[in-house]
Amino acid sequence: xxxxxxxxxxxxxxxxxxxxxxxxxxxxxxxxxxxxxxxxxxxxxxxxxxxxxxxxxxxxxxxxxxxxxxxxxxxxxxxxxxxxxxxxxxxxxxxxxxxxxxxxxxxxxxxxxxxxxxxxxxxxxxxxxxxxxxxxxxxxxxxxxxxxxxxxxx
Length: 154
Fold this sequence. Notes:
Blueprint: H1 5-19, H2 29-36, H3 40-52, E1 56-59, E2 65-68, H4 77-85, H5 104-122, H6 125-130
Antiparallel strand pairs: 1-2
């Protein structure tokens, strides 16, 4: 897929934080990992990447936890992906001064890269959190990678 497993875990963790008391609450990483069904140490590494990028804050001490550093509308889908996977860079022919003179593959890849970047910048954590599960009539028949067990989450 386009996104790594770590990126999907980061997205799911951030959606969970955004939906928990509108992103203002802190949650222990171990609790988030349990809800998401991933390893705590694996998620902690992902959370460190998000913290380094300035998307979350970690809270040391007996009530160790993590919370959003920015409001959900300020966090772009692109910033989440780049925090975990690194900068999204084109993977095609070397840059050329005149794109029209480049090979067709280069032109197509440049267009795709531009479109992908704009789309990822347009979508925010707020939008992803707003509808993080499929509509009820599709819920059982559509495998959703973001589907979170939000019922009963404190």
